[in-house]
Each structure stands twice: as C-alpha cells, then as structure tokens.
Amino acid sequence: MSPLNIKKLVPRGIRLRSKMRWKNGRWRLATTDRVFLEDVIVPFFLADDDVRHVLDIGVAWYTRSYPRLFKGKDYWTVDIDPEKQRIAGQNHRTVSATQLDSAFDPETFDLVVCNGVIGWGVNTPPAVTQALDACAAVMRPDAWLVVGWNDVEGHRVPGLEALFDARFRRVDFPPVGADHFIPETPYGHRFEFFRKR
Ligand SMILES: C[S@@+](CC[C@H](N)C(=O)[O-])C[C@H]1O[C@@H](n2cnc3c(N)ncnc32)[C@H](O)[C@@H]1O
C-alpha cells in the first residue's frame, strides 16, 4: 500500500488535528488553504471599512476561534447541523445555506464566505443553485462572495462554474491579482472571488 493510501486509513479528523499549530494566542489548523484563508483573505476584509456585516457558512471545530478572528466585524455563522450551535459563537443560526432568507433580512451582508460547504453537503447543481440564490438574496448590491471548494472527484459539483457566473461577477482579489487562488493541497482546494451583480 502506498503512503498516500495508508494516510487515508487515518480518520480525517485525526489527520487534521495533527496539523494544529499555536499562533497569536490561538490554535489554528495550519493547512495551506486555511493559512491562506486566515492570513490573506480575512485580513484583507478586516481592513475594508465597507465590509461590516459578514456571514460565514459552515462551522467546524477548527473555525471555533473565527468570531475572534473577525473581531470588529458583525460576524455571523450558519450551519445546517444543529450540533454546531455548541461550538459556534453567539451570532449563529441553525439553517441551511439554501434558506438563508428565513434567518436574515434581504441585503444584510457585505461579505459571505462559503468555504468547504459546496461538495460537503451542498452537493448537487439544484442545491448549489438554491444556495447561491439564497446568498445573493442576503447580500447587499456589490457585496463580496468568497467560495472555497475542493476540485476533486467526490467533492466536485458538475457545472459549478456556470452556476457561479449566472449569479455573480468574478472579480480580482487584490492580494493575488486574480479572481481565484489555488493553494497547494492534495485535495484540490481552490478559492473563487465574486461580487454581487
Ligand atoms: C467541511 S465543513 C466546513 C466548515 C467551514 N466553513 C470551513 O471553513 O472549513 C462543512 C460544514 O458545512 C455544513 N453544511 C453542509 N450542508 C450545509 C447546508 N446546506 N447549509 C449549511 N451548512 C451546511 C456541515 O454541517 C459542516 O459543518
């Protein structure tokens, strides 16, 4: 068995826990995609005074410190799994990404982050369509949408690019000068940057 296959025998949660590092007073998951998210994407938006209301879709044990990371912003999270309420911050709603309008007023958010949800629960073109429409509904005009997903078999949703492009315009993310960024990961993670039309 190759070392790659042996790795797969170890549950994902345990593999990830071995990548936890202590930095700036908090534990962080030090995978290249998460380091890019926390060290490049988040600081960029923290410095943007036009971004005050932030919605982050999907909560995990390694995002527990995100209410602190987004300190100074009106930071909200949602997750479809009621169990995530326990580890989420105060500003949290148990709701599906496909039904955000049942939890938030229209045009509330300046930024929506949807990392690791498409292909990790929102798995079919109709579900993605509903989720993107729901995001657009709670985003103010010109608000940012950052999507992170894994471009690998088993997590790739067919026709995803066209679903994005039908609803949002791609924009360059200034720190990288491109509308997407692909950190080096074994799971094809990529970030895409959009603004509401
Ligand atoms: C891999 S974790 C991603 C967590 C986090 N957003 C991140 O940056 O890694 C996927 C999370 O998405 C949640 N999820 C799956 N389908 C969802 C949906 N339709 N609406 C909201 N959350 C969903 C799952 O319950 C899980 O907590």
TrEMBL record:
GO biological process: methylation
Molecular function as annotated in GO: S-adenosylmethionine-dependent methyltransferase activity
Domain of life assignment: Bacteria
Residue ranges annotated for the Methyltransferase type domain, each copy included: 57-147
Keywords: Methyltransferase, Transferase
Methyltransferase listed as a keyword: yes
InterPro entries reported for this sequence: Methyltransf_11, SAM-dependent_MTases_sf
Designated name of the protein: Class I SAM-dependent methyltransferase
